Amino acid sequence: MQHRTWLGRAADWVNILALTLIAAAMIVPFLYIFSVSFSSMEEYLRKDFILWPDRWVTDAYQYILANDKFVKSVLITIWITVLGTTLNLVFTSTMAYALSKPFFGQRMFLFLVLFTFLFSAGIIPTYLVVKETGLLNSIWSLIIPVLISPWNLIVFSQFFKSIPEELNEAALIDGAGEFTVFWRIILPLSKPALATFGLFYAVMHWNSYFTGILYLSNPNLWPIQMLLRQIVVVNDTSSLMTEQVLTDPPPAETIQMAAILLATLPILIVYPFLQKHFAKGVMIGSVKG
Questions:
Q1: For 183, which DSSP code?
Q2: What family is this protein classified in (predicted)?
Q3: Are residues 41 and 76 located together in one domain of the fold?
Q4: Chain-centre distance for alpha carbon 146
Q5: Which of 15, 95, 204, 258 has the most crowded Cβ, counting Cβ within 10 A?
Q6: 208 and 86 in one domain?
Q7: What dihedral angle (degrees, nearest 10) is formed by the CA atoms of 236, 209, 136, 201?
Q8: Which domain holds residue 158?
Q9: Confidence class of residue 289 from pLDDT cuts 50, 70 and 90?
Q10: Number of domains, the chain
Q11: Vertex 201: Cα angle to 195 and 204 (nearest 5)
Q12: pLDDT by residue (tens digit) across 198-229?
């Protein structure tokens, strides 16, 4: 067994210490948010910093979950995320598959994709397009303008090029059409890519709030991130006030922390189911055999 030098062992301990500090810097804020959300008003007012509450209370969660606006906002966000991610994958995969095949005008289409990747239209032109197409105050304004990510499209296209062409040729010889080849052969082989880009798109839709600020003036259509911004950033917990909630609400800070946790929980639940494909998917398009 080879013995490590003292310099090597010291480097290992420095790495361990650095990684521990980085992990603590990430975990402690979540632990603080979690603890404050379950703290009572008396404990919150008494302590400056809470990492573990003395007495667990669920007043903040009862206050939020009894609110129709919050529940409706979560349902709207789930609908936007599911529908948007599905359409993102459909349009991205089909266009990427087309660009992975040689055809007349392929370079022109690829140039247009790269051009939109390097030069975006900007906020005002995009807003005018959304307005003139009648998408304002509609959930479609949060989906259609971001149907295809140029970066994901290019990487997806490189992944399709890495699939052996012999599979396509054998299927075409057997009488299958291009759509059959794509649906029955290419897509089943693309599960890591679909899982990876699906996770990217889902997180994008779930965390999106700026487009909602631009295109949604109707509070009844607000996704959860817009309502969360109103509660946390603007510090306006009165936006949750309804006749159904408690007349004596918990402290605003505990409501904010509980809202953050509830808004983050769905993505944390979905991620483990896609994790087994994620490790393969992150290397998509980087290596071609």
A1: I
A2: Belongs to the binding-protein-dependent transport system permease family.
A3: no
A4: 13
A5: 258
A6: yes
A7: -150
A8: 60-281
A9: very low
A10: 2
A11: 140
A12: 888 988 898 888 888 889 888 888 888 888 88
pTM, two decimals, is 0.78
Shared domain for 68 and 5, answered yes or no, is no
| CA–CA distance, 210 with 127 (Å, rounded to integer) | 12
Residues 41 and 140 occupy one common structural domain: no
91 with 125, same domain? yes
In angstroms, the CA 32 to CA 242 distance is 28
Q: Is 193 exposed, middle or buried (0-12, 13-18, 19+ CB in 10 A)?
A: buried
8 Å CB contact between 143 and 84: yes
Distance (Å, rounded) from C-alpha 268 to C-alpha 125?
Answer: 35
User: 119 and 15 share a domain?
Assistant: no
| End position of a domain, from candidates 14, 36, 57 | 57
Does 286 reside within a domain?
no
Q: Is 173 helix (H, G, I), strand (E, B) or coil?
A: helix
In a domain, 289, yes or no: no
How far is the C-alpha of 279 from the C-alpha of 282, rounded, in Å?
6
In this structure, is residue 287 part of a structural domain?
Answer: no
Cα–Cα dist 284/278, whole Å? 10
Amino acid at 65: L
Distances from the Cα of 132 to the Cαs of 143, 199, 215, 239, in angstroms? 16, 31, 12, 30
Task: Give the residue from 200, 199, 207 showing the smallest Cα distance to 263.
Answer: 207
Q: For residues 32-48, b (16+ Cβ closer than 10 Å) or e, as one string?
A: ebbbbbbbbbebbeeee
Residue 139 is assigned to a structural domain of this protein:
yes
Write out the two tokens for 74: 């979560």
Give the residue among 208, 247, 179, 227 at the shortest CA–CA distance from 84. Answer: 208
CATH code, 99 = 1.10.3720.10
119 and 226 share one domain:
yes
Query: Which is higher by pLDDT, 140 or 3?
Result: 140
Q: How far apart are CA 274 and CA 179, in angstroms?
A: 26
